[in-house]
Design brief:
Shape: globular
Order of helices and strands: HHEEHEEEEEHEHEHEE
Number of domains: 1
Structural class: alpha/beta
Distance between the termini: 23 Å
Number of helices: 6
Largest sheet: 11 strands, mixed
Strand content: 25-35%
Helix content: 10-25%
Radius of gyration: 18 Å
C-alpha cells in the first residue's frame, strides 16, 4: 500500500498548519502520551525505543498471556524458522473488561500463565495515566457496552510492565515489555495506532470481545471492511485471527489491499486444546502459504 503523506489529527495540538510527512511524524515519542502517578517521568526497560517501537498489538487481550510464547526466540527458532517473523520490541494490549479481567488487579509476582512447559510471570508494573489532553479517550456506546471509564474506579488507565516467559523444557528465559491500555479497541486505533507513535508489525485479533466482552464492532471490520487504514501509518506485516467468522471476514476484506495475503502458520490458542488460530502474512511470496 502506497502511503505518501500521513494526515494526522494532532496538527492543531502541535501548532502545525500542514500535514506531517511520515519522516516528521515518527519523531513524536510515545512516552509523551503517558504520565506517571508520581513524579515527572517513568523508566523504560533497557533497549526499548522512545520513538516508534516495533510492537505486537493484541486487541481485547484481557489476561491471555499464553501466546507470548509464540513470539519468543526459542519458539520462533524451533517452530517458525521458515518465517521472518519479527520479535516485538513491546507488546501493546488494549482491553476494557466488564468483569475486571483486564489491567486492574495485576501485581508484581503474579503468575500470568503456567502449564507443564511454560511459566509466565509479571516482574514489574508501572501504573500510568493516559494524557487525555493529547489522546482523545472515548468510550463510544456504538462500539462498547457495559463498561465505564476506568478512571472512575481507579487512579490509572494504563501500565508499563515487564513480563518474563520461562521455558521449563528448554531452560530458556526471555523478558518482554508490555504496555497495557484500558482502552476500547477502535478508539485505540483511531487515536494511537493509526498515528505513527508505534510501528505495529503484528495485529492479534483472536479475542475481539464480540461475545461477552462488551464490544459491539469487530476491529477487522473497522480496519479493513471500512477502509480505516487508508492514509494512516498502520501497516502490519502479520495478522492473527480466530477460526470463526472473523477469519473469513479478514480474508475477504483484507485481500483487496494485500493481494499476496496468505496463511503461513497456526498460532498458539488461548488454552491448550483450544480452537485453532491462524497467522497471516500480508506481503512477499506465496511459497510457504498453508
Amino acid at each position: 500500500m502506497n502511503k505518501k503523506v500521513i494526515s494526522v489529527h494532532i496538527n492543531d495540538f502541535l501548532g502545525l498548519k500542514t500535514p506531517l510527512t511520515e519522516k516528521q511524524f515518527i519523531q513524536l515519542p510515545w512516552v509523551k502520551l503517558f504520565r506517571p502517578l508520581h513524579g515527572n517521568s517513568f523508566s523504560l526497560p533497557w533497549g526499548l525505543p522512545e520513538v516508534r517501537p516495533k510492537v505486537c498489538w493484541y486487541v481485547s487481550g484481557g489476561r491471555d498471556f499464553r501466546p507470548l510464547v509464540f513470539w519468543s526466540d526459542v519458539y520462533r527458532e524451533q517452530r517458525l524458522a521458515h518465517l521472518a517473523l519479527p520479535r516485538p520490541e513491546m507488546f501493546v494490549y488494549t482491553c476494557l473488561s466488564p468483569d475486571g479481567g483486564g489491567l486492574h488487579g495485576l501485581k508484581v509476582g503474579d503468575v500470568l500463565f503456567q502449564d507443564g512447559r511454560t511459566f509466565i510471570t509479571l516482574l514489574s508494573i508501572q501504573p500510568l495515566r493516559i494524557d487525555r489532553k493529547r489522546v482523545g479517550v472515548v468510550n463510544n456506546p456504538k462500539y462498547v457496552q457495559m463498561v465505564d471509564d476506568p478512571l472512575r474506579a481507579h487512579d490509572y488507565d494504563a501500565a508499563l510492565m515487564q513480563v518474563e516467559v520461562r521455558s521449563l523444557t528448554m531452560g530458556a528465559c526471555e523478558r518482554f515489555p508490555l504496555l497495557y491500555l484500558a482502552m476500547e479497541n477502535l478508539n485505540a486505533f483511531d487515536v494511537l495506532m493509526s498515528k505513527g507513535y508505534f510501528s505495529v508489525e503484528s495485529l492479534v485479533a483472536t479475542r475481539e470481545g464480540l461475545g461477552m466482552g462488551g464490544c459491539r464492532k469487530s476491529i477487522i471490520r473497522h480496519l479493513y471492511t471500512e477502509n480505516r487504514i487508508q492514509d494512516t501509518s498502520f501497516n502490519p506485516q502479520y495478522v492473527v485471527t480466530w477460526s470463526d467468522s472473523t477469519d473469513e471476514l479478514f480474508r475477504k476484506s483484507a485481500r483487496p489491499y494485500y493481494p499476496e495475503l496468505c496463511r503461513v502458520a497456526p498460532y498458539i490458542p488461548e488454552s491448550l486444546g483450544g480452537f485453532p488460530h491462524h497467522l497471516y502474512r500480508l506481503y512477499e511470496n506465496q511459497e510457504d502459504c498453508r
